[in-house]
Amino acid sequence: MRRYGKHTDEDDIRQRPNRKGNRPRTNIRPKHEDAAEGMVLTVDRGRLTVLIDDRPVHAMKARELGRKAAVVGDQVAVVGDLSGKKDTLARIVRIEPRTSVLRRTADDDDPYERVVVANADQLAIVTALADPEPRPRMIDRCLVAAYDGGLTPLLVLTKSDLAPPDKLLELYGDLDIPYVVTSRAELEDGTAVARVREQLDGKITAFVGHSGVGKTTLVNALVAQDQRRTTGHVNAVTGRGRHTTTSARALPLPGEAGWVVDTPGVRSFGLHHVDPSRVIHAFPDLEPGTENCPRACSHDEPDCALDAWVAEGHADPARLYSLRRLLATRERREGD
Questions:
Q1: CA-CA distance, 68 to 63, in Å (whole number)?
Q2: Whole-number CA gyration radius for the chain
Q3: 136: CB partners within 8 A, 6+ apart
Q4: Is the CA virtual torsion 123, 129, 134, 140 positive or negative?
Q5: Which of 82-91, 193-202, 239-248 is the least confident region?
Q6: Do 132 and 239 touch, CB atoms closer than 8 A?
Q7: In the chain, fewer beta carbons within 10 Å around the N or the C end?
Q8: Please, what is the angle between helix 317-328 and helix 136-149, to 10°?
Q9: Of the candidates 263, 206, 231, which has an alpha carbon nearest to the alpha carbon of residue 132?
């Protein structure tokens, strides 16, 4: 039986009402070509603070981004209310490609990687020379994460009034890593801050370290106009500090000279996500020697071509040792 006539029109077609009362979905997404560009400063339980034209704007992630999350340091496109006024909320509709990524996992058996900071130029690894005692394995792991993510490492050694830095610096001398040594007295009179500032000017620097090493205290001294909570005491039994920074936050250096990103204190730095083949890129003097390596070479096996490359005098043997020590950290748990 024919329901409609020969010449039907749209008004003749019956349409079932949408029970949910909302508009039908479409796969066509707006391009948001007029969206404002900004930098993510903080992330707190799904709410983000984005700096747009020197004005902090509160925003949330658009549903169309799916599970892709924005992190501190991300360059994002934002639409909606960009006034930054109280009780207003904008929407992040696009996350721009990242130039670098600092990632970690809870431990080496955890497949879930966490992006800590995006688009940072360097990673300042803050370590106390005493109280708590330095943990070289932790430093090694941070170095691997920096090399893997495209960040330049910087060693910041604190509390030199309690122990000398020579032994620790000797361990990393062959890696040619820039470093700054500070003491409590130098932090108080500002000389340490000036030396650290020289390494930070014009860059975005993420600060990482375990609790109690003086990381947040140093950040407070660098960014005087935006004080964070100071570092907690070190437990006399465990030798570990108490977390005082609970979320990552980007803070501007005075005079628009750069940015520091203060991250929560960590007690472990898992490397489950790291591809060992990318670490070699941080050793430009060794990288040409890998051309004759077997496929999927770990650079720490009997037929690795780097041994012959170094034996022929193309690179310092100490550099090869340092590379293999760092690569081994992925297979060796921190603290072993």
A1: 10
A2: 25
A3: 168, 171
A4: positive
A5: 239-248
A6: yes
A7: N
A8: 90
A9: 231
